[in-house]
Write a structure and sequence with these properties.
This protein has seven helices and 14 strands. The protein is of the alpha+beta class. The chain folds into two domains: 6-112, PH-domain like (Roll), CATH 2.30.29; 133-278, Roll (PH-domain like). Helix 6 (252-267) packs antiparallel against helix 7 (273-285). The longest helix has 17 residues, at 218-234. The chain is globular, with a radius of gyration of 21 Å. Residues 15-109, 142-228 form the DUF4429 domain. This is DUF4429 domain-containing protein.
Length: 287
């Protein structure tokens, strides 16, 4: 940068350009995505950035985006491409009349990126969200103190399988990774991975909590997943991809509860008529 400490302010965030990093400060306000408010600020080392783009945005705006290197940011690794565009913490949206200024900073930032160090990383370069943290899922409360994940089940939502297993505690040393499925899609959940065994359905898995309408929102569950994933990586765990599992027969009461959840999402407009019909048929087929 021409001057260390230069600041470029846009909608919902401001980027401060430093000699070895970009400090992103997110605004607080009712129009700012809740994920940004939860993150507060993030320092992105230049070595964690693979490239920079400047593209036209919507409604008279331009978008400056830093492309994180694969494996550099625990938040983006946990999200696994599920974040909506408006919640992408690497996007800075600016008025069109600031395009020339944004282009200048984009060029300056590109010039400072390491030429031969833009591929996947073998360790996280961006700090993980701070712990301790917790959030409420539909079937239980999840908490993490930096060393152990705890699941405490709610009698109003937990399946009989989870009640029989009892409340759960998982040391980071037991885990191989984290699976986060956005609460903004049907059957969203947070699952703790252990080894390479194919997991059961999330609502039957004592190592998973299930989201629902209003439960486990992105701004709470995603930073949680990122913090756990970071702790696993520090201890040498490797995030595993679960193998597809064959459909398992469920308790009829659990099926009825999942169909009720599906109906809530349908009524809220988060699931289309077609998606509702298809998924309901799938659930009934598991009886």
């Amino acid at each position: 940068m021409s001057r260390m400490g230069d600041v470029l302010a846009g909608f919902h965030a401001a980027w401060e350009f430093e000699s070895d990093s970009v400090l992103i400060r997110y605004e607080r306000g009712i129009r700012t995505p809740k994920l940004f408010q939860a993150l507060g600020e993030r320092r992105i080392p230049l070595q964690a950035i693979a490239g920079v783009t400047l593209t036209p945005g919507k409604r008279g705006t331009v978008v400056l985006r830093a492309e994180p290197r694969p494996g550099a940011d625990p938040l983006m690794e946990a999200a696994a491409g599920q974040l909506k565009e408006g919640c992408d913490p690497y996007r800075l949206v600016l008025p069109r009349d600031r395009e020339t200024l944004a282009e200048y900073y984009a060029d300056e930032l590109r010039a400072r990126l390491p030429e031969d160090d833009r591929g996947p990383t073998d360790r996280f370069l961006v700090p993980a969200p701070d712990v301790p943290m917790n959030f409420k899922a539909y079937d239980g409360k999840a908490s993490f103190d930096g060393k152990t994940v705890h699941f405490r089940w709610f009698w109003t939502g937990a399946s009989s399988a989870k009640w029989k297993a009892g409340d759960q505690s998982f040391a980071v040393s037991e885990l191989s990774g984290v699976e986060w499925r956005s609460p903004e899609v049907f059957e969203g959940h947070l699952r703790l991975l252990r080894g390479t065994a194919a997991p059961v359905q999330a609502d039957q898995d004592p190592a998973a909590v299930v989201f629902g309408l209003g439960y486990g929102p992105v701004h709470e569950s995603l930073p949680f997943a990122a913090a756990v994933l970071d702790a696993v990586r520090v201890r040498g765990g490797v995030a595993a991809v679960p193998a597809p599992s064959a459909p398992q027969r469920r308790d009829p009461a659990d099926i009825a509860e999942r169909i009720r959840h599906l109906g809530e999402l349908h009524q809220a407009g988060l699931v289309t008529d077609e998606e509702f019909s298809v998924k309901k048929a799938e659930l009934l087929a598991e009886l």
